[in-house]
Amino acid sequence: MTQPTVTEDTITDTAVARWATAHDPRTAELMTALVRHLHDFARETRLTEDEWMAAVRWLTATGQISDDKRAEFILASDVLGLSMLVVQQNHRLDPAATPATVLGPFHIDGSPEKASGEDMSDGLPGDPLFVHGSVRALDGTPVTGAVLDVWQSDADGTYEAQLDVDEARLRAKYTTGDDGRYCLRTIAPLGYAIPMDGPVGDLVSRTDISPMRPAHIHFLLAVPGYEPLITHLFREGTEFLDSDVVFGVKRELVVGFTRRGPGPTPDGGHSEVPWYEARYDLVLQPAG
Which Pfam families does the UniProt record give (predicted)? Predict the structure, then answer.
């Protein structure tokens, strides 16, 4: 039997019907909705063949520049606001819990374990910074043995994932003690531009969108019995808090960096040079 000729008016229903045959119900739901919205977009914008081909070339280039370190598609999702939308939909936490933000494109698995107060900057240039506080549940109970996976950019705004290096760089895992407290040493982060040398940067450069991110440190916690948390701590008073290109800033995550003179440090040690202190308590929501 010959397939009926599709028309501009029937192509969407025909494609939706085909994708509705997916064996997994959720796949069928996702794909039929995707087809409908893509077709609606094409109709609303009167998409031309040249524009469609330009989009295909952009997606191709985005895939080609991606590798095991560079996640250009995550960056694309971030700057379109999709990443934060998905985060918000999937982490409707108690107002007292630490808010979640985007993972970003630069996380690397397998960071080395560091002792409390140990320096994850390993002598890289920058102002010494101690970040310390506690990890606790909503009811105030200390969370013992919580692993904080921490990563950040260097003084030039560059992450390890952007460099051709073999050793861990400005990333580490710290574990809370019996009292739920943690302490990490690093260097004060700076604001930086997202990578502008790829398809995402090229697209952003065609707009008035600022490519900048405010100074921040990333945290990832996956503690049994609690909702997983991916978040940032942003430096109070830093530039671009009101225009973060990936929409990740939340007021509750902005923390002051207090300048201290040479002397005792939060890890029980002593600094011969001035340093900065940031205090922040991470509050986890029980799972379920």
Answer: Dioxygenase_C, Dioxygenase_N
State pLDDT tens for residues 128-181: 999 999 999 999 999 999 999 999 999 888 999 999 888 899 999 999 999 999
- CA-based end-to-end distance of the chain: 52
CA–CA separation, 95 vs 9, rounded Å? 47
H/E segment holding residue 241: none
The overall pTM is greater than 0.85: yes
CA distance 271 to 219: 25
Q: CA 82 to CA 102: how far, in whole Å?
A: 10
d(CA 35, CA 20): 10
Is the separation of the CB atoms in 183 and 267 below 8 Å? yes
Integer-rounded Cα Rg, in Å, for the chain is: 23
CA atoms within 13 Å, Cβ hemisphere of 101: 23
* 285 within 8 A of 223, measured Cβ to Cβ: no
Q: Are strands 216-221 and 212-213 parallel, antiparallel or unpaired?
A: unpaired
**How confident is the model at residue 181, as a pLDDT?**
98
**Distance in angstroms (rounded) separating the CA atoms of residues 198 and 72:** 8
Predicted confidence (pLDDT) per residue in 49-66, tens digit: 999 999 999 999 999 999
Element (H, E) at 131: strand 128-137
State the Cα–Cα distance between residues 21 and 38, nearest whole angstrom. 19
pLDDT digits (tens, 9 = 90+) for 198-210: 999 999 999 999 9
